[in-house]
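Record type: ASSEMBLY
Status: queued
Input:
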Amino acid sequence: MPKGKVVQKLGDDISTDIIYPGRFMATVLPTETPQYAFADNAVFNQALNEKQVPAGSFIVAGDNFGCGSSREQAASCIKGYGLTVVARNFARIFLQNSINVGLQMVICPGIEAEEGHELEIRDGKVWNLTTGESFAIESLPKARQAIIDAGGLIPYARRLLLERAG
Amino acid sequence: MDMTYVQKLLARACGKDKVAVGDILELPVHLAMSHENAALVINQFKEIFRDTGQESRVWDPDRIAIIFDHRVPAESAKTATNHKKTREFVGNQGISKFHDVRGDVGGICHQILPENGYVRPGQVLLGTDSHTTTHGALGAFAFGIGATEMAAVWALGSILNVEVPGTIKVEVNGELPRGVYAKDLILHLVGLLTAEGANFKVIEFHGDTIRDLPTSGRLVLCNMTVEAGATAGVVPPDDETRRYLRDEAGVQDELDLFAPDADGVYDRVVEIDATQLEPQIACPHTVDNVKPIGEVKGKKVHQIVVGSCTNGRLDDLEVAAGILKGKQVAADTRMIVFPASWRIYSDALRLGYLNDLIAAGAVVCNPGCGPCLGIHQGALGDNETALATTNRNFKGRMGNPGAEVFLSSTAVAAASALTGVITDPREEG
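Status: finished
Output:
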């Protein structure tokens, strides 16, 4: 499981307009969306685009991460950089989009971490290696586990399609 | 049987006697709606079929609706190309409920579905748009999903692994005071519940205020339930639902109207006395930052926006025209009006509302999502403030993270257009 630094610490109710502003919605393909991740946060967007943020790094957020629009670009643009999102909880559609496209995300109601801290996910907990604290992970909705296990909704749906055709 | 409306709907949809909160169901889908993001759905749909040896055909071309509304007419070559590819896909698959960029059939998806009679009580209705909750106003279980989820629906005809949600009952009684509208009620409720207060739950509306509310107002309520995080909002169908579907949506076939069980079990009950409500304003930058108008009035606004899937219906244009007729929009304020569909636009033209608005100085745009999501038609300048009848005020929402968006009813927006500052419509004229 991932181990890396917190590269962005965010508050509550981070909307999909902050993650992927509406004016870039004509761009849809997961291969193209990462360039606009957090586009209105010029410093972070530039760091991402200039590949200064190693895969396996963490975004840490408060309650209701990903609220707002159903735009899947908000999940695919983060996944494109191999980041993991640790939030106290997530908005429903964003959570399901993340699972469907295979974005690593962790529900961690007690998470305490600051930018620069090193985190590791191990044994059902988020470990803050900088402070020495650990925080319990809440398991994902069980209805979604089969999709995660299949590696995302596309392979899962493809398998069902073939099973049902047979 | 102690089921709420949506639990009962889900049991019927799956042919079961009973479902309980937390049950995991595969739901048959009655209607699957997408807008411009159909371009991504098509891409993911083709991915599902890749290397299967099967021809990529949608499960039922008559149960898919595609409506162009987010960027119409196309604001860029990229959007125009996405429109073109989607149009070709629609033709190849024989998708029948297609609403192109046209004055005879076009509009915003959340108005096009109801007014064309596509929405029915008892349906499972999915859309690749978070405001799909709107259609609960007609008794459907309607919720937003992402594009890949929709691609799987197009392939399989069902949505997989849906967890039966719990329900919050909202009971509203009493007559709405003069100058207070459904929009004020839902803003008040979102403020009360908070932006995440209804996450993963359904909001079910009851009470005599709701019974007396026309479908146009119920659409406003359900539209914004997602702003409290709700999976769906729903008004159990009644005589008004029947009237709307028969008289306004042209639905001829038999309707399946049913009610929640009298002993339905709710996670929470919220009671609201409508007689005590005042006009409400959602302040930047979250929809749950709601204040009564008295705390905000006098705030300078540079742009007024009336329209959207929330408040772009004929009764909104009637209210706006009624306030602005024979008067002028304040000199340093601009007003943008965008009706929710071309049918509404055409009716408002015939009834003289649009002329009244234009004469007052408003710019009337073509129906579509317009400035609501900050792509085109009415972006804000740095440090500008907008007052809009739309549904979101997130930072950057109207195309500029350095601007502010306040949300209100149409009456507040129109009264404020005259003064250039946030104004209580009860004090106007």
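Annotation: Chain B touches chain A through 56 residues (CB under 8 Å).
Annotation: The first strand of chain B starts at residue 24 and ends at 28.
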